[in-house]
Amino acid sequence: MRALLLWCLPLLAFAAKTHITVKTVKEELDIQNVEHPSDGVIVRIIDPQEAERKTNEAAHADSLDDLASHGHDAEHADEHADEHADEHADEHAAEHSDGHGEHAEHADGHGEHADAHGEAADAHGDGHGDAHGDHGHDEHAEQGHGDAHGEHGHEGHAHVHHAPDEKTLTASYMLIGGVTLVMAMFYLVQHPDTDIRYYSWNILTLSACIFIAVLASDVVNQCAKRFIFSGIAVGAWGTVALDLCLAVMWFLASQLVTAALSGAFGEEAKEPQDADTEQERVELEELWNQRETAMKCWGGLVAHCAGFAIVATLASLQDSEPFAASPGMSLLVVPGALVLVTLLYRAAAFTRKKISEMDDGVVSRGEALWDEISEEAENESLCLGLSFAAIRSISFFAIGAMPDTHFHIYSDVAGADWHRGWMVLCAVSLCSMMLGVATLKLKEKMFGGHGGHGHGHDEHAIEAQELHDEDDIRLRALLILSETFIMSFSWGMLSCAIAMLNAFKPQLEHHLIGHLVVALVVSALSCLMLVSLDKVADMLKAHGDSESTVHIINHIILAHGLLIGISWEVCFALGMHAISHAMDGPNVDIFLAVFLCLVVVPAYRLFMLPELKARAAKCL
Question: Residue 534 has what pLDDT?
Answer without folding.
Answer: 82
